[in-house]
Design goal:
heterodimer; A: 305 residues; alpha/beta; Rossmann fold; 2 domains; 10 helices; 14 strands; globular; B: 11 helices; binds adenosine-5'-triphosphate; binds magnesium ion
């Protein structure tokens, strides 16, 4: 597979205040993204995700490091023509309507007139804003702005799309809509670079992730390599069995009413618990085996760092 | 093409600004006030109307250029609309030039509106259309282009308030720097004189664009003077724009 984005040893610091004291934000970021994958860029608030993306797109200049997009230097027009970008908390010219806005931006790509209208229509349909085409952006809700932002990022039919917290501040339905669009992009063979701190979303759609903490990449790799599928413990909710009988099986919590939550760590104990329930004519309400999640890994790594 | 798209969007945005219309209103008040002033004075009334009118055009045009020019680039950075522009296949100089031409177009329209009021007033006084006035107005336009570039330059690295103060200082110095020339003539040759001469050449001389007195008084103007002013305006504006681009190219948008 071809490497679409390659970052080597990126360093960036910001000058703070009048004293111009330097604060290191990125301390040697290196990563590579392969064609066709949805790459998750994970990190806690302030880790440097947005700063990395800004370096890639030429909004800020790193002190050190090398960035290549499709083998071109990242600032070359050839690289930019193939990329799309949705910033975090996007805000656009609020005096323009949705279609005027897309029209303006398509002129920056020199898209031809005949093509333009068709393109704008299909993008508005893709992000489900057809009915708001003639509404001024000042009247857009947060979720609508996110979606029109998505549309402008796709105007040039990019092969590589950078999305900075595309799901931030959206309700569950809005999140699902954006997620669906991302999955669709992946199915079309595009590469998506996605930054987020919402782990469930990343877990659902990303093939590979890099975890950045405090300006350094702590871990990167395929999702299934980073988190094992080993069962950590099994949660069983049951009723009708006494506390004494369950002793030694696992951690015991009494829940609502007569229900009991049991955290069973040894797999052979799960069968024993089930037998106990049967023999004492109790009831099993739920049984959930818990594998490791990205969240466990994340919490662990952030704590260490 | 890309520059044109940015310029037109800038124009659309600028033309919506209420400050512009407030200034336009005050300009109209001043122009009409000159009529009143003329009534109170003895002497050639029409000359006063023309003098005050043209001065208002220059002053309010300059204020518009400064307020628009310092605000618009800052706003794009502040509201982060620039993020999605700079990340597109566009050079930063194209963005800045687009802003410049958009502002120049806005000022052109505003100057046209103000001139209409002014020329109408003159017409009601003399019942002739005075074409020489257009020459004076054209040079005011050149001056406004230069001031716009200066406002853009300051807004590339400073806040709107500071940039406005700097640009206003530029305008005021530009109209008083000729005083330095008279001063230079008076001081004897010395280090101070050389310094003053160097300063004079460095400072802008916006009086180059001021043909008000000559035109109002119906004096002859040598055509070299026009040519010199046109070239002065074009080169000074280009020079300022190039510095602005050099600064803007290296700027971090954080
Ligand atoms: N304009 C700025 N001036 C100085 N420091 C800044 C500036 N913007 C960001 N920082 C600092 O840079 C660091 C990284 O910020 P960045 O926005 O890249 O984080 P992030 O990973 O995107 O976080 P989030 O999840 O909150 O978006 C933070 O510590 C922040 O304080
Ligand atoms: Mg961020």
């Amino acid at each position: 597979m071809a490497t679409v984005l390659k970052i080597e040893n990126l360093h960036k610091s910001f000058k703070l205040g009048f004293l111009l004291k330097k604060k290191k934000i990125l301390r040697g970021i290196s990563l590579s993204v392969e064609q066709g994958e949805v790459f998750g860029y994970l990190g806690p608030n302030g880790a440097g995700k947005t700063t990395t993306i800004k370096c890639i797109l030429g909004l800020i200049f790193p002190e050190e490091g090398n960035i290549e997009i499709f083998g071109h230097p990242h600032l070359s027009p050839k690289a930019k023509e193939k990329t799309g970008f949705l910033p975090e908390n996007p805000y656009f010219y609020d005096h323009l309507t949705a279609s005027e806005f897309l029209d303006y931006y398509s002129q920056l790509f020199l898209i031809k007139k005949e093509e333009k209208e068709k393109k704008i229509k299909s993008l508005l349909r893709l992000v489900d804003l057809e009915r708001s085409a003639d509404l001024q952006l000042r009247k857009f809700s947060r979720g609508m702005l996110q979606r029109i932002g998505m549309a402008q990022a796709l105007l040039n039919d990019p092969s590589l799309v950078f999305l900075d917290e595309p799901l931030g501040g959206l309700d569950p339905l809005g999140r699902k809509e954006i997620r669906d669009i991302i999955v669709r992009l992946r199915d079309e063979g595009k590469t998506v670079f996605l930054s987020s701190h919402i782990l469930q979303d990343i877990e659902m759609i990303c093939n590979r992730v890099a975890i950045i903490v405090n300006g350094e990449i702590i871990n990167q790799g395929a999702l299934h390599d980073l988190i094992s599928e080993k069962i950590l413990f099994t949660e069983i909710t049951l009723s009708g069995v006494g506390e004494k009988e369950l002793e030694g099986m696992g951690e015991y919590f009494s829940g609502h009413g007569d229900r009991t939550l049991l955290k069973v760590f040894k797999e052979e104990n799960v069968a024993k618990v089930l037998q106990l329930v049967q023999s004492s004519k109790g009831k099993v309400h739920s049984l959930i085996p818990r594998t490791e999640t990205l969240e466990d890994l994340f919490v662990e790594i952030v704590k260490q760092g | 093409m890309k520059i044109k798209a940015i310029a037109l969007n800038t124009f659309k945005e600028a033309i919506r600004d209420r400050i512009l219309y407030l200034l336009l209103f005050f300009a109209a008040v001043c122009i009409i006030f000159s009529r009143l002033l003329a009534l109170l004075t003895v002497g050639d009334r029409i000359k006063i109307i023309k003098d005050v009118g043209l001065t208002s055009l220059s002053l309010f045009g300059a204020l518009m250029a400064i307020l628009m020019g310092t605000g618009l680039v800052f706003k794009e950075i502040d509201k982060k609309t620039i993020y999605t522009i700079v990340s597109k296949p566009i050079h930063r100089y194209q963005f800045l030039l687009g802003k410049f031409f958009g502002l120049v177009l806005t000022l052109f329209i505003m100057l046209l509106l103000m001139s209409f009021i002014f020329l109408a007033l003159v017409f009601f006084h003399t019942f002739t259309i005075e074409w020489e006035m257009f020459v004076a107005i054209l040079f005011i336009f050149f001056e406004l282009c230069l001031i716009t570039s200066v406002a853009l330059l300051f807004s590339c690295f400073s806040t709107p308030i500071l940039s406005s103060i700097f640009s206003l200082a530029f305008y005021l110095i530009g109209h008083t720097a000729w005083g330095l020339e008279t001063l230079i003539k008076k001081i004897p040759p010395s280090f101070g004189k050389t310094m003053a001469q160097a300063l004079y050449h460095f400072l802008p001389d916006l009086e180059n664009f001021n043909f008000k007195t000559e035109i109002v008084q119906n004096l002859d103007i040598p055509s070299e003077a026009f040519l010199y002013s046109v070239l002065y305006g074009i080169f000074y504006t280009l020079f300022v724009l190039i510095i602005a681009i050099v600064i803007f190219r290296k700027r971090d948008f954080i």
